[in-house]
Amino acid sequence: MKALQYREIGAAPEVVEVPTPEPGPGQVLLKVTAAGVCHSDEFVMSQSEEAFLAAGWALPLTLGHEGAGIVHALGEGVTEVAVGDSVAVYGPWGCGHCHNCAQGKEQICLNAVEQGIQPPGLGAPGAMAEYLLVDNARHLVPLGDLDPVANVSLTDAGLTPYHAIKRSLHKLGAGSTAVVIGTGGLGHVAIQILRAISASTVVALDVSEDKLALARDVGAHETFLSNPEAVASVRELTGGRGADAIFDCVGIQATADLAAPMAGHEGEIAMIGVGGGAVPVGFGTTAYDVAVRAPYWGTRDELIEVLELARRGQIHVETERFSLDDAPKAYERLHEGTLRGRAVIVP
User: Fold this and answer.
1) All domains of the chain, ordered by start, with CATH?
2) Kindly report the CA angle at 43 between 56 and 141, in degrees rounded to 5?
3) pLDDT tens string 62-99
């Protein structure tokens, strides 16, 4: 089968032929219908050889941690799904037995590192291939009549901001202000989630007018260019109070430096993006009682909720489609910042 693999440190990913996997006991083989392209893939491919190996990754690595497919074959003992089912893949695989996994929080599994459990595309072979081997049927969520190409990115680009926003809902009642920094693949979905499940005024920041136009298209009440003047703009909009919650979907130091002074007293800052930025925490570094979080992915039941929002038409993902053969071009576009929303690979 064809697969898109990262094969050499610092090199571009390439399409190669690899053996088609066979499901063992408890496993499920999917015929992939869609796979999402994500900045996390760029993060993986930007690591030095030392950092790459320290993370427990190995080459070659088939990319793709956002996946959807049709159940193609079942390993011995699998009864939860049937051949022909259309499913989305819950990516943050865990042991299924520890304290966190028992609560559905496999993204923070306590045993994953010790047991060598890694997500597809982020250690295990990923979804950018004609077939994907899933370790356990509990990591599959029914898609039903949802279009896999239009919705596969919700498994990360929807789930990750949804998880972050749910943690801050107690701050997002009527009269509150929520700021989304970065309106690309994650941010344009975060705006829609905020509009769907909160009563906040939603403010979007980005570095280009094109990205701000997308933010307005998907429901942002106010938009500002992401520059040093944005802090004063948000403060003025809120009558000097500052934002109640800020969701940084970029996560570089420049956006972290915007988020810190923008947060009002008792506000929350969620550093969602993986750009390596950080908000200093300590007396006098932010407004009083500001909380800073670094959320990671989300739970299986939250993914079910995200897909339900899509089924109701309350959220959608702006997508550009690429064939598996053209997948390297999708990563070039991602690096250039010229994608509108999310790129999706369709084998």
Assistant:
1) 2-156+298-346 (3.90.180.10), 159-293 (3.40.50.720)
2) 75
3) 999 999 999 999 999 999 999 999 999 999 999 999 99
